[in-house]
């Protein structure tokens, strides 16, 4: 399948084909369990195809998909749209440049979301260039207006976010870009767990190295993503003494699970040990 950044909208056929393909990949990679997760793709300024509620994303057929407008009215399809579609619609209304949204519960990223920890350390060159920092949207009661409200602050500045005690959300110029950002977030989370939790050490990039990576990201046309913390930002200072970065990726009203950074890290270590011992990654 061709993957390319495009400025126009895909046809109905293309949008549905991509949603089905990403659904299969999402399920095969263990990014969702049961009927979890949802995918949507705009086909015009005001309409989008999305996944239905109550269906495994690994076993969808095109007749299950739903066409709706940005107000949430169903235009085509015999099934009800996912209840989490309110979150997708809010992304589209906040940032009209976004054409696709992917939501999943990948285990490593979700563990960070449970711990209330953003992915914001400059430890991976590809993550700095490709997705930037990933903040945590504050806890929101499923199915309520709190959910779209919680993610709205990040839609124009970042490429995705963690959803506290829930999962992860990404958006992009097309379904594949949003999906690849979801893959990148999970990889970033997993490597963060290995280095900080299991190995106990990570060499953060320097301010200068982060600057050069972000310059390359900007030159490639990606103007969102924020700035992960460089090596000098890592001592708990509110502002990096070298580059001046304000270290405020976590939403201020997202409480940590146990009230201290060390307790949070201990919790993440335990989570990753549990995941590894259950052999999910073999
Ligand atoms: Zn969910």
SSE topology:
Elements: H1 12-28, E1 38-42, E2 47-50, E3 66-69, E4 74-76, H2 85-94, E5 100-104, H3 107-115, H4 125-130, E6 136-137, H5 146-151, E7 160-163, E8 167-172, H6 175-199, H7 207-219, H8 261-277
Parallel strand pairs: 6-7
Antiparallel strand pairs: 1-2, 1-5, 2-3, 3-4, 5-8, 7-8
Helix pairs in contact: 3-6, 3-8, 6-8
Bound molecules: zinc ion.
Would you kindly provide a brief summary of this structure?
With 282 residues, this protein is α+β, with helices and mostly antiparallel strands.
**Numbering strands along the chain, what is their spatial order in the largest sheet?**
4-3-2-1-5-8-7-6
Number of helices: 8
Give me the Rg, rounded.
Answer: 18 Å
| Share in helix | 25-40%
* Helix-strand category: alpha+beta
**Total individual domains:** 1
Q: Round the mean pLDDT to the nearest integer and report it.
A: 85
* Small-molecule binders: zinc ion
CATH topology: L-fuculose-1-phosphate Aldolase
Taking the alpha carbons of the first and last residues, their distance comes to 27 Å
- Under the CATH scheme, which class? Alpha Beta
**Shape type:** globular
- Please name the fourth-level CATH homologous superfamily: Class II aldolase/adducin N-terminal domain
Level-2 CATH architecture: 3-Layer(aba) Sandwich
Number of strands: 8
**Quick one: biggest sheet?**
8 strands, mixed
Query: Order of SSEs, N→C?
Result: HEEEEHEHHEHEEHHH
